[in-house]
Automatic annotation (TrEMBL):
It is a multi-pass membrane protein. This is Sodium/panthothenate symporter. PANTHER family: SODIUM/PROLINE SYMPORTER-RELATED, SODIUM_PANTOTHENATE SYMPORTER. It holds the Pfam family SSF. Belongs to the sodium:solute symporter (SSF) (TC 2.A.21) family. It comes from Heyndrickxia vini. It is found in: Membrane. The chain crosses the membrane at residues 6-23, 44-64, 70-95, 123-145, 157-179, 191-211, 238-261, 273-299, 319-349, 369-387, 393-416, 423-439, 451-470.
């Protein structure tokens, strides 16, 4: 255990708790507990909006799984990762003002509120809530595992002990602070992620003797590490271009990202967030994945790819600096966990409990249920994460694909196509979910494309066909 590495991390966690306590004051003074706890009273400025989107999207996959995959596949994975640069731009440009205006008109606090008001269907609400719980559970498990593995590397404790420390730290301040605590800590975390990425990239290049020496070394190990097709030449042009649907355009359909487009203060804040968010995501994605490739020349032979990032950090930086830089992946993981935890909690409490079980609960009852639900979810994930997968990035990408296949068309068509109706939305959501699970389990990457492509295309066709055929029925 290296105390110089641990001190910056401890300071970082203490800062989170302070933010959670300060944010809890807003909950106590707010006129609407639900608006404040789940949406921060829609008062997010441009910089905070950009950083909370960056921090939410920049998960454990970006800082732990992504560099690990780049370590195995080479520069081709950096190319693949760069397709994510447009994420913030697409989300805010596609959803943008229209989504914010309509969500305010509907008084929508969650994405499911928007879908329910747009389609006037209980089945849309139920399918949406169930989808969020199913797919985001796998996402949260991935983040829990990433956080635990990071703490395991830093603290030198067992994986189970590290998992317990991480889970307790996250749960305390999310339960206390709600969305506002998540947004403010996201901003701090986004800044740490950006600074940590730049510092580590520079240190890695220096440790490897410069980019030319590192590339020469990688070429000697395996020339395909420098090719656009990956070390085993499995990343074909068709797969890479189709992957862009998963991590670029398709991100519009991620509830944890879309809900942020409901929380900004005004149009100026949104435009500022687009610019800042795109630049910051670009730097982080390029930097972290390139570090993963460069690490192969500096510390070859790492068996568990998910440990590449902490190992190379402690190798190329002095202990105190490594502690600061390792706060970046911890920031990414914690911010994603926080956001997703709030989202799943809101799906259960607001969309299912208040929507169908108790339609007029007291504020005290809502608070009790919210805190109880968030705690139970956290504990459930803790137990599910005790036996982690070999490479957590695949668990996270499964979650991404499933949510996109379910939500992307009901959101976009609900905003921009007046003929879209509840029958089309229900058919599209069921088709997207069913096909995605089928292809992922039994026929992954059909025709050389990423698994998400066919479910998204089919759910679009089904949405249009069913909406047109039920046009008269929907009017009645």
């Amino acid at each position: 255990m290296n105390i110089q590495v641990i001190i910056p991390l401890v300071i970082f966690l203490l800062l989170f708790f302070i933010v959670g306590l300060l944010a809890s004051r807003y909950i106590k003074s707010s006129d609407s507990f639900i608006q404040e706890y789940f949406l921060g009273s829609r008062q997010m400025g441009g910089f905070i909006l950009a950083m909370t989107m960056v921090a939410t999207y920049g998960s454990g996959s970006s800082f732990i799984g992504g560099p690990g995959a780049a370590y195995n596949y080479g520069l081709a994975w950096v190319l693949l990762a760069m397709t994510q640069v447009v994420t913030g731009y697409f989300v805010l440009m596609v959803l943008g003002k229209k989504f914010a205006i309509i969500s305010r008109k509907y008084d929508a606090i969650t994405l499911i509120d928007f879908l329910k008001a747009r389609y006037q269907s209980n089945w849309v609400t139920i399918i949406a809530a169930v989808s969020i719980v199913i797919f985001l559970f796998s996402s949260m498990i991935a983040q829990w595992v990433g956080g635990a593995r990071l703490m395991e590397s830093i603290l030198g404790v067992s994986y189970t002990t590290a998992l317990f420390i991480f889970a307790v730290s996250v749960l305390i301040y999310v339960i206390i602070g709600g969305f506002r605590a998540v947004a403010i800590t996201d901003t701090i975390q986004g800044i740490v992620m950006l600074g940590g990425t730049i510092l580590l990239l520079i240190a890695t290049l220096i440790a490897g003797g410069g980019i030319e020496n590192i590339m020469t070394d990688l070429k000697q190990q395996n020339p395909n590490l420098l090719s656009p097709y990956g070390a085993d030449r499995s990343l074909t042009p068709l797969y890479i271009s189709s992957f862009w649907i998963l991590v670029g355009v398709g991100v519009v359909g991620l509830p944890q990202i879309a809900v942020r487009a409901m929380s900004y203060k005004n149009a100026k804040a949104m435009h500022r967030a687009i610019l800042i968010g795109t630049i910051v995501i670009g730097i982080i994605m390029f930097g972290m994945h390139l570090i993963g490739v460069l690490a192969r020349a500096i510390v070859p032979g790492i068996e568990n790819a998910d440990t590449v990032m902490p190992i190379v950090t402690m190798k190329v930086l002095p202990a105190w600096a490594a502690g600061i830089v390792l706060a970046a992946p911890m920031a990414a993981i914690m911010s994603t966990v926080n956001s997703v935890l709030i989202l799943v909690s809101s799906a259960i409490v607001k969309d299912l409990y208040i929507g169908f079980i108790n339609k007029e609960p007291t504020i005290k009852k809502v608070k009790q249920i919210s805190f109880f639900t968030t705690s139970i979810i956290g504990v459930a994930i803790l137990f599910l994460a005790i036996h982690p997968p070999d490479l957590l990035i695949w668990l996270n990408l499964f979650s991404f694909g499933g949510l996109e296949a379910v939500f992307i068309w009901p959101i976009i068509m609900g905003l921009y196509w007046k003929n879209g109706n509840k029958y089309g939305a229900i058919a599209s959501m069921i088709t997207g979910m069913g096909l995605y699970i089928y292809f992922d389990r039994f026929y992954p990457n059909p025709f050389g494309m990423h698994t998400v492509v066919i479910p998204i295309l089919c759910s679009l066709l089904i949405f249009i066909i069913v909406s047109l055929f039920t046009k008269n029925k929907a009017i009645k």
